[in-house]
Specification:
The protein is an alpha+beta fold. It is built from 13 helices and five strands.
């Protein structure tokens, strides 16, 4: 009997680059200890080191195709961790964990949004299957941090109405849970994750277009049943309000919203908008906003409109 020979790093890397999820899972497991050692050497013991390793693992999921020397993938993974750790040390404004590796070249220079880059990768559906495994409160912070433009801990804390420390804790739990789910489901088949987001994008476009024309048509109105509740800055304290009247007031004031980005899971959808105001508006609406929708059986149960802080 020929003795079993484990696959080399080069073989696993080439298989991972071809979209074989199990191969990438094996690579990450094989190099987890040295990756963690690099993080510890720069950040010391604590959650930041663990977060840097988890961020690096997620980065590897979408950039394994950039490895030019498959036999040196271990050094590449350690460099990814090192860069993630240094970003944590020197960053003035916290950036999302899937970003920040400027020295690694993207294949498509026309796509800069993190979620768009993931969409180009063969392992996209594997990643989203792991995201869907998260409880809703963890999934929301992961979606905001890694797939939207609402990325700083402070912004996420304001959106979720929780302390910054809770955001850090939820992100850490979410990434750890995702890592376990990715390892456990590497050989499974997955639904097309992009279909959920594309359907949400169609709904967003149809909703905005229908709102400007007047009453919502039935197929759009069905997404917003009478029990839907608007919460947050546009709602009245202590009063239960449906989103339609509040959004109608915005339209009547001459403010227009233009869809920029959509990210969606089974029961959370985030629509990010650019905003234009009338030239003579005294109290203009901020230039960007986001709709955070929580659904049940496809229908919106709760909508929160948030106004991310501009960079500065």
């Amino acid at each position: 009997m020929v003795p079993y020979q484990p696959l080399t790093d080069a073989e696993l890397t080439r298989r991972a680059q071809a979209g074989e999820t199990g191969a990438l899972g094996l690579l990450l497991a094989r190099h987890q200890a040295p990756m963690h050692a690099v993080a510890l050497s720069l950040l010391g013991q604590g959650p930041d080191a663990d977060d840097a390793v988890q961020d690096a693992a997620l980065t590897a999921l979408r950039r394994i195709g950039d490895v030019r020397d498959p036999s040196a993938v271990g050094a590449w993974l350690r460099a990814v961790v090192r860069n993630a750790a240094r970003m944590r040390l020197r960053s003035v404004r916290e950036m999302p964990g899937l970003d920040g590796l400027g020295h690694l070249q993207l294949r498509d220079h026309g796509s800069s949004h993190p979620e768009q880059i993931v969409e180009q990768h063969a392992l996209r559906d594997w990643i989203w299957a792991a995201v869907e495994e998260l409880p809703q409160h963890l999934r929301l912070v992961v979606m905001l941090r890694h797939f939207s433009d609402i990325t700083t801990y402070q912004e996420i804390a304001e959106v979720c109405e929780v302390p910054v420390g809770t955001v850090r804790s939820r992100l850490s739990q979410g990434r750890a849970t995702m890592a376990r789910a990715l390892r456990a489901t590497a050989e499974q088949a997955y639904d097309d994750a992009s279909a959920v987001t594309e359907e949400s994008r169609r709904e967003a476009v149809a909703t905005l277009e229908a709102s400007e024309r007047g009453p919502l048509p039935r197929e759009i109105a069905e997404l917003w049943p009478k029990e839907t509740e608007l919460v947050g800055i546009l709602s009245q304290p202590g009063e239960r309000i449906h989103p339609t009247p509040a959004l109608r007031r915005i339209l009547d004031a001459g403010v227009r919203q233009h869809l920029r980005h959509v990210v969606a899971s089974s029961d959370i959808a985030i629509w990010e908008m650019d905003v234009t105001n009338p030239a003579d508006k005294v109290d203009p609406c901020p230039s960007t906003l986001a709709w955070l929708m929580f659904r049940e059986d496809g229908r919106v149960q709760r909508l929160r409109v948030v106004f991310p802080r501009p960079e500065g």
